[in-house]
Automatic annotation (TrEMBL):
The gene is nuoJ. It comes from the Bacteria. Keywords: Cell membrane, Membrane, NAD, Quinone, Transmembrane, Transmembrane helix. The keyword Cell membrane applies. It comes from Sutcliffiella rhizosphaerae. NCBIfam families: PRK06638.2-3 (NF005168). It is a multi-pass membrane protein. This is NADH-quinone oxidoreductase subunit J. The chain crosses the membrane at residues 6-27, 34-51, 57-78, 94-114, 134-161. Belongs to the complex I subunit 6 family.
Amino acid sequence: MTITGEFIAFLFLAVSAIAGGVLMLNLTKVVHMVVALVFTFISLAGIYVMLSAEFVAAVQILIYSGAVTIIMLFGIMLTRHNDHSETSGIGRKLLVGAGILGFAAVMYFGLYSLDLGTQPSADLHVNNTEQIGVAIYAHYVIPFELTSVILLVALVGAIILARRDDEEEVKEEATKE
């Protein structure tokens, strides 16, 4: 196996994505978790660029790193949560570490024995943005629009839940006086 610049870039992006995911799981403050998740999303976008899927990389950055992260931050700001961090014992950390190593071993041996067949055709990456657009708007218009409606309903629901909590607080303060 020869080590190329593409291989080094892939390793860097893959390790960055994994590190962001591990940080997201191990950090205690919710805002820090969201930042680690953004780090993972951007690393995945870099991997998509390496796979000649520029449109998917742009969507990854715009939608996931931008919109979904902002919605998560709105959800955090609009809802109340107790920030009680639990200390996990050494046994739990060892169990999680063993699970991670087991998953990594299964993925390694599964990918190592994978046969991908022949090389793809040369015109696979030609006009991939146009091909994706035609597929979305010709065959998947309804699921595409339903996704935006679901995101809007989730945002409105978070606002309603936050408003109810504020009204309950006002009622409780009025009864105390």
